[in-house]
Amino acid sequence: MKKLPLEKLHFFLSLLTIGLFGFLCSQLVKASPIFEGEAKEILGFKELLPSPFPYPVAKGTAKLPELSAKSVVVLDIGSSVLLYQKDPETKLLPASTTKIMTALVALENYPLGEVLTIKDSQTEGNTVKLTAGERLTVENLLFGLLIGSGNDAALALAENFPGGTPGFVAAMNEKATALKFSNTHFTNPAGFDESDHYSTAGDLAVLTAIAIKNPTFSRVVSQPEITITDVSGQIVHKLKNTNELVGKIDGVKGVKTGWTKDAGECLVSLVERNREKVIIVLLGSKDRFGETKALIDWVFNNFEWKIISPASSR
To answer: Which of 70, 99, 175, 256 is labelled catalytic?
Structure first.
């Protein structure tokens, strides 16, 4: 049997949005976890699940933490099952979590060793202090983008794209469309707040699950800190991961922070423990690191992964 694809998960989220499962949703407590039995029936794809397969089963031994985040998704990657959701399809400002898509488009269009020239280093918000005329490899710009969350790194990747920044942003939206992200749209590669720039926790969870399949992306986002240089080796940039949990909390492997005054605190994290991989997305939080840590504790105290074979009678 085939493994449940991530596209099916996103299809499920979309169905929730348009109300096809309206009655079911009305019966569920808002922001309640999806447990083993419910998940199999709600998804409606149980015949596609491999048998046997590792599946997260709730033990009911840990209390769900209080969360200030406007939208939350906790996704078990191996089973493609939502362990928790809170308004997963609400359109919100994604801030610098935008750079997950920026990185994917760059990885699909640039060789890692290609050298790009910084055209304009002047930009608002967080930067890694690139200078006009500086020449860096795409790989080092990805470190600046994902570890240092540099808006200047994002713009450098976009400005050197065929068609410049407008062409790069168009490629971001084309990918979002190809992934059937009907509630995601980009107007810039850095995550600046703009009226037509938005995404959802559900879309970002699926996007991250796709992104971490790329070994370069996974390697870059997992670094607690790194020093990069321009191609001459004369200009040095010391970068520290903006995700404070990387290197401090067991199993946290990245992925991306985000913050603006209007977006609030945003964080997309990958956690791997005992071979189980979980993605946690928080948008509009007042304590992204504390709430992510609390959710990590809740997940691994409240769920155990068991080998389950779907009953033949169902």
So the answer is: 99
